[in-house]
Amino acid sequence: MFLAKKALLRPLAEPHPVSEVAELEQEILARINRLGIGPLGLGGTTTALAVHAEVASTHIASLPVAVNLQCHSARHKEIII
Amino acid sequence: MDITHIASPINTEIIEKLKIGTKVLISGIVYTARDAAHQRLVQALDKGDKLPFDLKGQTLYYAGPSPAKPGYVTGSAGPTTSGRMNVYTPRLLAAGIRAMIGKGSHSPAVRETIKKYNAVYLVATGGAAALIAKSIKQADVIAYEDLGPEAIRRLVVENFPAIVANDIYGGDLFETEKAKYQRRK
Fold this sequence. Notes:
The structure holds two protein chains of two kinds.
Chain A: H1 2-8, H2 19-34
Chain B: E1 3-8, H1 12-17, E2 23-32, H2 35-47, E3 59-61, H3 89-94, E4 99-102, H4 108-116, E5 120-123, H5 129-133, E6 136-143, E7 152-166, H6 173-181
């Protein structure tokens, strides 16, 4: 969640300094905007203004992902499986 | 740009004219209710208790306004996610509610109930809460005061802007508009 907040607070559309991560940001943005959801879900080619990603090392068995978006509340849930 | 003026409480004739995508300006009485208030209304219906207001023909606005600054009738009053009311909405439509104002889509089950009871679901603009507040001329807590911002407020509104998202013809604005812009590649 810390990385997600950090990504959120980066100035809008400033790409990640590592080119691989910057490419990932562009790819995700393009895919999101092809969904057609648009502002308020009422259709359009702009669903997201930007995608900011931050990365960190992790054990390959876990691969956790945290996402922050618009007014989405940062609720999270943990389960033991 | 075509805009339809509608009065709330809602009369059934106007409902027939409302089709998905229709822009409306609502004037009259609107009651705020978020999930906690919905739950209490449905519990009251289950128990056969007296409801805090007569639901017949009324409009619910999924919102919990922020406190009013001195000299204002309300603080910001924007719509909240409608999906959270899905479990309660059919019951309230059956009990007389005729219009809902919210943000985002309602479930297919709610859409069916909207058709069945000649109702309408309207979307307000998310993120424009301060602007929406300007169309609210009076706000009084009428029930469940302990819920704070989620208490039911009776609002007097003038030209409250919204768009028809679900109509009595079974249309869904989110599905039709998304399909126009969706691209595979």
